[in-house]
Amino acid sequence: QAHLVESGGGSVQSGGSLRLACVASGITLGSDCMAWFRQAPGNEREGVAAIDPDGTISYTPSVSGRFTISQDNAKNTLYLEMNSLKPEDTAMYYCAADTHGGSCFEVAEYNYWGQGTQVTVAS
């Protein structure tokens, strides 16, 4: 059984930075889609950044240029570097891996999820 464990969340001021990490066990990252999602209270879970099996990286427009997704295969870890954070980035952030073969940005496609890490950005 695969497990994903996120860390790195916290509270920062607007304009600050955080680096999230997602350590995987029981699954090898990189063989399928990997992604970061986020969910704010009252909102649906949305895709933030994803890496396709061929290595193509995609971002949702609101974070493009501020967030960077990356992976360390040796550590079986997925990262999300978040810079120039804004209050609207406040949410629970989840990593996800291994899809049913569909879009890397579709919540319903993923088989494995982490427990989430909270990111709070104060104005």
- In whole angstroms, the N-to-C terminal distance is 40 Å
E-strand count? 11
Low-pLDDT ranges: none
| Sequence of secondary-structure elements | EEEEEEEEEEE
Average predicted local confidence, pLDDT: 95
Helix segment tally? 0
Shape: globular
Strand content: over 45%
- Rounded to the nearest angstrom, the radius of gyration is 13 Å
If you had to describe this structure to a student in words, what would you say it looks like?
With 123 residues, the protein is mostly beta strands. 0% of the residues lie in helices and 51% in strands. It contains no helices and 11 strands. The chain has strands at residues 3-7, 10-13, 18-25, 34-39, 46-51, 57-59, 67-72, 77-82, 91-99, 110-113, 117-122. Strands 2, 4, 5, 6, 9, 10 and 11 form a 7-stranded mixed sheet that branches. β7 and β8 (77-82) form a beta hairpin. It is globular, with a radius of gyration of 13 Å. The mean pLDDT is 95.
